[in-house]
């Protein structure tokens, strides 16, 4: 029995849930239709290029959580799950999760997308453990700021190490599945790194290092 770690966006899902949430907010008329769309697209391009300014991105991404009531956000998220997430859950991803579950492995999703967006997705996938960016909450409302270290690039490793301190688990025999070169810091420290429908940079590195490359979309 080992730890099986999964990236979420463009790995278990065929989309980026952070970007899709931004599109959803635009459809609801909840954000500025010009400035928000431009920023959403720019940050997505920066992420793909490996140049994302995480602090600047989170300032934009978490502001709508602070601007709206928990009740409104909850109602929106239910619609978001139905319209954006459910159609983009990959059947082969669910099969992969089931294989690790059957082996008795501990399943963990680790993502740079915030917990408000991803906790219901992890629950839908039947994954009990989630490491995500934590939006700060005070007096029952989101503040628009992040709490703690963002689980992005090297931050994923740090947050995983912190999480392991409270678990009866080790990294021995661990798996990590990801599509993105941004996840190289974590891919490099697991026994079983797997490139899933990888971006071009990760594909080349995976070939050089003879890591497994697989698709959940074929």
From TrEMBL:
One Pfam family from the record: HAD
Biological pathway: Amino-acid biosynthesis; L-histidine biosynthesis; L-histidine from 5-phospho-alpha-D-ribose 1-diphosphate: step 8/9
EC numbers on record: 3.1.3.15
A GO MF label: histidinol-phosphatase activity
Known catalytic reactions: L-histidinol phosphate + H2O = L-histidinol + phosphate
Domain of life: Bacteria
InterPro entries tied to this protein: HAD-like_SerB, HAD-like_sf, HAD_hydro_SerB1, HAD_sf
Top-rank EC class of the record's enzyme: hydrolase
Keywords on record: Hydrolase, Magnesium, Metal-binding
Similarity comment: Belongs to the HAD-like hydrolase superfamily. SerB family.
Protein function: Catalyzes the dephosphorylation of histidinol-phosphate to histidinol, the direct precursor of histidine.
Protein name: Histidinol-phosphatase
Species in which this protein is naturally found: Vreelandella boliviensis LC1
């Amino acid at each position: 029995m080992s730890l099986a770690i999964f990236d979420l966006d463009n790995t278990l899902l065929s989309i980026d849930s952070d970007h899709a949430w931004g599109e959803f907010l635009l459809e609801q008329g909840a954000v500025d239709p010009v400035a928000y769309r431009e920023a959403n697209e720019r940050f997505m391009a920066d992420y793909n290029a490996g140049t994302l300014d995480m602090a600047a991105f989170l300032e934009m991404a978490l502001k709508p959580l602070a601007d709206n009531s928990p009740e409104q956000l909850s109602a929106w998220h239910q619609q978001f799950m139905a319209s954006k997430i459910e159609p983009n859950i990959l059947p082969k991803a669910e099969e992969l999760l089931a294989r690790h579950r059957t082996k008795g492995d501990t399943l963990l999703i680790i993502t740079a997308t915030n917990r408000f967006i991803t906790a219901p997705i992890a629950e839908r996938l039947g994954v009990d453990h989630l490491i995500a960016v934590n939006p700060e909450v005070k007096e029952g409302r989101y503040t628009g700021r992040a709490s703690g270290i963002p689980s992005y690039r090297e931050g994923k490793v740090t947050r995983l190490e912190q999480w392991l301190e409270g678990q009866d688990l080790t990294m021995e025999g661990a798996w990590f599945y990801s599509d993105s070169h941004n996840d190289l810091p974590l891919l490099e420290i697991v026994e079983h790194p797997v490139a899933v429908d990888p971006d071009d940079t990760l594909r080349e590195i995976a070939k050089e290092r003879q890591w497994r490359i697989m698709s959940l979309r074929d």
